Amino acid sequence: MTTLDQQTALEQAARKRIKDSHALDGDVGRLTHFYRGWASSYELDVGHDKYCGPTIMAELAGAVQTAYLANERTAIAVLDAGCGTGLVGVELERLGFRLIDGIDLSQEMVEKARQTRVYRHVQGDVDLNGPLPDHASGSYDITVCCGVFTLGHIRPDALRELARVTRPNGFVIISTRKSYAETTSFEDQVRRLQDAGVLETAQCLKDGKYIAEEGAHYWVFKVPDRVCAEAEQQL
């Protein structure tokens, strides 16, 4: 039986690993090495810190499908970008989504996601700070990205590529930790993409629940009609 002192020690160790992940500066090598070692205890660690981000993200995807998309959830193609061990995918499947693909930098995390059996396809070694050459423009009705726009992980300009792989009149749903939004140029990047006609902000839930130590902002972006056509012309 775990004593109270042991439980406290486990929670402190979990929070240290979460904090350490924020100091990786988006470096692919450091991130890959860190998550290789973290994959086996990741879900236990974030569970200690009451991580509700995946549930909120999936429910936002469900609300978007109900409010805006003609197809039933079973026919909605979803990309889980930065899928990790599959926490968001499991929540999406619970809400009736069936065509779910996942991508992540860590092969070890991807293997955990694959074991959930909720994904059509899962691919590792994918750096969200770069282009996504294996994904054609307009491939998905909804792209979700939870827990990745956080300190030490991906840059704000990664949002442009997530918009590219989402179809016209589709949606990109992401979370940003409050600390990330406050210390990066994320909102400036959002304004630039809006001015360029790449994205439209459909909704922003500020200061929502995310993890015990910190809240997050949840963003729902719509991809305008013209974006994918222009992107294909540039290829």
Structure report:
This protein has 235 residues and is of the alpha/beta class. It has one domain: Rossmann fold. The protein has helices at 4-21, 28-38, 42-48, 53-68, 87-94, 107-115, 158-164, 178-183, 186-195, 226-234; strands at 77-81, 99-103, 121-123, 140-149, 166-177, 200-211, 214-222. It has a seven-stranded mixed sheet with strand order 3-2-1-4-5-7-6, sandwiched between helices. α1 crosses α3 and α4 (53-68) packs across α5. The protein is globular. The model has no long low-confidence stretch (mean pLDDT 88).
The SS-based structural class is alpha/beta
CATH H level: which superfamily? Vaccinia Virus protein VP39
User: Which oligomeric state applies?
Assistant: single chain
Q: How many whole angstroms does the radius of gyration measure?
A: 17 Å
Instruction: Give unreliable regions as ranges.
Output: none
What is the chain-wise order of helices and strands?
A: HHHHEHEHEEHEHHEEH
Name the beta content range. 15-25%
Give me the CATH fold name.
Answer: Rossmann fold
By CATH reckoning, the class would read Alpha Beta
Largest sheet: 7 strands, mixed
Overall mean pLDDT score?
88
Number of domains: 1
Shape: globular
Number of strands: 7
Q: What is the CATH architecture assignment? A: 3-Layer(aba) Sandwich
Q: What is the CA-CA span between the terminal residues?
A: 59 Å
Helix fraction by DSSP (H/I, runs of at least 4): 40-55%
Give the count of helical stretches. Answer: 10
Topology diagram in text:
Elements: H1 4-21, H2 28-38, H3 42-48, H4 53-68, E1 77-81, H5 87-94, E2 99-103, H6 107-115, E3 121-123, E4 140-149, H7 158-164, E5 166-177, H8 178-183, H9 186-195, E6 200-211, E7 214-222, H10 226-234
Helix pairs in contact: 1-3, 4-5
